Amino acid sequence: MNMTDMNNPKPWAEGHPSLYQGHDITHRPDWANIIVWDAFFNNLTAGFMVLTGIAWFSGPPLFAALLPFALTLALLIVIVDLVLLVFDLGDPPRFIHAMRVLHFTSPLSVGVWGLACYATCLGCAVGIYWLSVYSVATNDFLAPYIAWLDILMRLFTVLAFIGAVVVICYKGVAFSCTSQPGVKKARWLTSFMVSDALLMGCGLYAIMAACLGFWDACAYLLLPFIILEVARTVAFSLLWMETAERARKVYSGENTLLRVWVYLIGGLLAAVLAFFGVYGMCAAGALVLLTGVFERYWLIGITKKI
C-alpha cells in the first residue's frame, strides 16, 4: 500500500474484510438474570446509603451507633454489584476502559465513575472504622490517633454519601432512553428508580436495625417508609402509563400479577404491616425487597426484542 492509500483508506465494501473482522465479539449479557440483579443491588446499595447518611446527619444518636454496621452492609452489597456489573457489561475489560477517562456526556462513563468512587470512599470509611476498633481493643500504636481516624471515617462517609446520590440517579445503560425499546419514552423512569431505591433502602435498614436490637429505629423509620411507599407507587403508576403499550405486547396477562405485587403486596400490605411494631416493619421491608426484584424483572423484560 502506497502513502496515498494509507492517507486515504478506502471505505469498507462488500466482499472486503472489515476493520473489525477477527476481533473477539463481546458476548451478549445475561438479560434474563444478571442485569436484573445488577440493577437491584445497584439501587439497593445506593438507596440504603442515602438513607443511612440522612439518618446519621439528622436522626437521633441511635442512628450514629448503627452507622458502622450500615456502612459495612452497604459495602458488601456494592461489592456484589460490582462483580455483577463486570459480567453485565459483556466484556470485563470494558469496565476498566470506562474508568480511563471521565466523559460527562457519557452515561456509562459517569455511572461507572460514580459507582467506583462511591465504593472506594465507602470501603475507606469501613476500613478505617474497623481499624480503629481493632486499635482500641489491642492498644497498638494507632490508639493515640483514634480521634483523627474518626474524623477520616466521617469524611469518607460524607464522600460515600455524595457518591451514592450520583449512583441512585443513574438508571444504567440497560435503561438508556436512547437505546432500548419499551423505555425510550419512559420519562418517569428515573423518578421511579430513585423512589424505589430509597424505599428498598428504608426496608433493609429497618431489618438491619431490628436484627441488631435497635428496635426504636424502626419507629423512626415508619413515617419515611410510608412517604416513600406513596412516592414509589405514584412514580410506578406514571411509568406504567408510559410503558403499558409495550408491556402488553411482551407479557400479555402477566401484567396483572405485576400490579398486584406493586400496589397490593408491596404497596398496601407492606404499608399496613409497617404499623404493627418491629416484626411488622421487618415483614414490610422484606415485601418491599421482593417487590423490587419483581419490578426489575418486569422492567428488563420489556426491553427485549419481540
What tags apply to this protein structure?
single chain, 306 residues, mainly alpha, globular
Major β-sheet, in short? none
Structural class: mainly alpha
From the spread of the alpha carbons, the general shape counts as: globular
> Number of helical segments?
10
Low-confidence parts, pLDDT < 50 over ≥5 residues? Answer: 1-12, 23-27
Percent of residues in helical segments? over 70%
What would the average pLDDT be, to the nearest integer? 82
Rounded to the nearest angstrom, the radius of gyration is: 23 Å
The fraction of residues in strands falls at: under 5%
Oligomer: single chain
Euclidean distance between termini CA atoms: 46 Å
User: H/E order of the elements?
Assistant: HHHHHHHHHH
Describe this structure in words.
This protein is mainly α. The chain starts with a helix and ends in a 5-residue tail after the last helix. It is built from 10 helices and no strands. The chain is globular, with a radius of gyration of 23 Å. The N terminus is likely disordered.
Summarize the topology:
Layout: H1 3-7, H2 34-58, H3 61-88, H4 92-98, H5 107-138, H6 146-169, H7 189-211, H8 215-251, H9 254-273, H10 277-301
Helix pairs in contact: 2-3, 2-6, 2-7, 2-10, 3-5, 5-6, 7-8, 7-10, 8-9, 8-10, 9-10
Task: Briefly summarize what is shown.
The protein is mainly α.
